[in-house]
Amino acid sequence: MRNDICEIKFDDMSSELRALITYEPNGSLSVEVPQELIDEVRRNSPVVRWEMGVGFFGMEDVVAAGRNPHLVATEPSTGEPFGMGTSVPLIPLHLDGEIHRHYRRLLDPLFAPKKMALLEPQIRALADSLIDAFIDEGHAELHDALCVPLPSIMFLTLFGMPLEDLEFLNEKKNRILKNEGTSMMEMEQIGRAAGLELDTHLRCRLTERRAESVRRDDLLDSFMYFQVDGHGLDDDEIVNLMHMFTIAGLDTVTSSLSCILAWLAKHPEQRRRLVAHPEELARAIEEIMRSESPVPSSGGRWAIQDTEVNGVPIKQGEMVYLCWASSNLDPAAFANPFEIDLQRESNAHIAFAAGFHRCLGSHLARAELRAAIDQFHRRIPDYWITDGDEVEYELAGVRQAKRVPISFPVAS
Ligand code: HEM
């Protein structure tokens, strides 16, 4: 039995701990610099047990919990997911066990590192065209001008969908994720209504594609025709997956790109070094991802039978909360965790999660981040936060820099 479990009532929790486990939007955590408060939660109580369940905040426990087959990602008594604009479990996020492995076997090869690396020229060209729109101005707001459109347009391109869907897609995704409404119930209803509109639209695009006589070389085509061990995907599964990717792949890259560019704009010395040594960029991105952890914690997990994680007992039916952000600051896992060392040698961070549900799109996300930032540095090597203005952050499930106002010299 462990002696570092903090038993506490929900009402007695620190406001920071409560903000984390309730995913409180823009709540008690400083959205600009949440790291110290998140770390304090872990230092005070690496394991928390409250009325509803158990929360893990240290690297070793979070990784072990992520790999525990008795902890599942959909509330077993209802079978319904929460907060993703759907009443049916999303593939693969809300599935577990053999069925989850089945889908990951199908999907992982489509998002493998070598495949995603081939997208680099496309990502660079897209970044270039977005940069063209503001490079003569000497200033830009990078969240809207680059960080939002880049992953959304890549998504449309990868799925072979028309660019005219851009606004529709982002509007639905925002209504699903941004927690409008005054109660949890109302938020869920608004999210599900938007999710239904999204699915209807995605199904139309799929039907149009099925009517085409010529095959295309894109992800939608792959989803329609590929088979592993004699299994393919039907239309419901494909719409479900496209819903999943809309929710998982747009906001997360926007958040990460905006946090990284804001950090670089605020740290001119490190940025200059990176511009001079672009071969160090991939490692630098990993380190900023570790420190920023734009997706701070997992969705819900529940115990389907009595189990334990590193000696912490969990009862059947209890909820389990996993904090990636506090694990990424754990001194047992990283030397000097608060130092952002862009040359850090060993960096097994879990900003893309750990365990069975580790991010399926991490190689795509990394390809987008690397190519976009490198291209940005080639075009605009010197930039800073505009005098008298500031970066604005937001935490709504994911943390992002929702305004990144920069200035830069205009080439004569
Ligand atoms: C920098 C950007 C990204 C970050 C930080 C990120 C982070 C994460 C995290 C933390 C999880 C685990 C969620 C949980 O356990 O509740 C996850 C899962 C997932 N992500 Fe990402 N993600 C990113 C980009 C993407 C992209 C671009 C895609 C799609 C192409 C994607 C698709 C997925 C999927 C499908 C899952 C579920 C995997 C499973 O359950 O097996 N992600 N991601």
Question: What's this, in brief?
Answer:
By secondary structure, this protein is of the alpha+beta class. Helix content is 47%, strand content 11%. The strands form 4 sheets. The chain has a 6-stranded mixed β-sheet. A 3-stranded antiparallel β-sheet has the order 5-13-10. Strands 7-8 form a two-stranded antiparallel sheet.
Flag low-confidence runs.
none
Helix content: 40-55%
Topology pattern, helix = H, strand = E: EHHEEHEHHHEHHHHHHHHHEEEEHHEEEE
The CATH architecture is: Orthogonal Bundle
What is the strand arrangement across the widest sheet? Answer: 1-2-3-9-6-4
Count up the helices: 17
> Could you tell me the radius of gyration in angstroms?
21 Å
CATH fold description = Cytochrome p450
Summarize the biggest pleated sheet: 6 strands, mixed
- % residues in beta strands: 5-15%
Mean pLDDT: 95
Task: Describe the global form.
Answer: globular
Number of strands: 13
Question: What is the CATH class designation?
Answer: Mainly Alpha
Question: Which structural class best describes the helix and strand composition?
Answer: alpha+beta
Description:
The protein has one domain: Cytochrome P450 (Cytochrome p450, Orthogonal Bundle). 47% of the residues lie in helices and 11% in strands. It is built from 17 helices and 13 strands. The protein has helices at 15-21, 35-44, 59-66, 97-107, 113-117, 120-132, 142-147, 149-159, 166-177, 184-211, 219-225, 235-249, 251-266, 268-276, 281-292, 324-327, 362-379; strands at 5-7, 47-50, 53-56, 71-72, 139-141, 301-303, 307-309, 312-314, 319-322, 384-385, 392-396, 398-403, 405-407. Strand 7 and strand 8 (312-314) form a beta hairpin. The longest helix has 28 residues, at 184-211. It starts with a strand and ends in a 5-residue tail after the last strand. Bound molecules: protoporphyrin IX containing FE. Protoporphyrin IX containing FE binds next to helix 12, helix 13 and helix 17.
